[in-house]
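Dear Dr. H.,

I hope your travels went smoothly. While you were away I took the liberty of generating a structure for the chain from your last submission, since the lab meeting agenda had it listed for discussion. I wanted you to have the full record in hand beforehand rather than looking at slides cold. The sequence, exactly as received, is reproduced here:
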Amino acid sequence: MHAKSGTVQGFSYTFKNGITWSPPPGTYPRFSEETLARFDDNYEIWFGADGTATPSRKTFLCEAKEGVTPITIWDYKEVGHNHEAINELKALFPENPFPNPKPTRLIRRVI
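The corresponding predicted structure, in token form, is as follows:
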């Protein structure tokens, strides 16, 4: 939902469920307000299992680019997801010093 470069400052967007999102400090919105509204209308935003997590855009299989077909799939139920990783880090570091953390379950699986 956010990018490392851009020009829009002070951006925030309130979704239909009442959650207001702003890019983290030092980042910029990846999508315009109009695009976020379209995603929201089409239920293309995920707010976590409890509906209150940091929003992220859903990726659909029909949008995947052609290429190498994976022979192994690690389901998020087994290895976690980025929202889980963010919550794990927030429990340790309220300021969340890492921009793209990975869940500990995933790291264990990789190792």
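Two observations you may find useful: The chain is about 30% helix and 10% strand. Helices lie at 33-41, 76-79, 82-92, 104-110.

With kind regards,
E. W.
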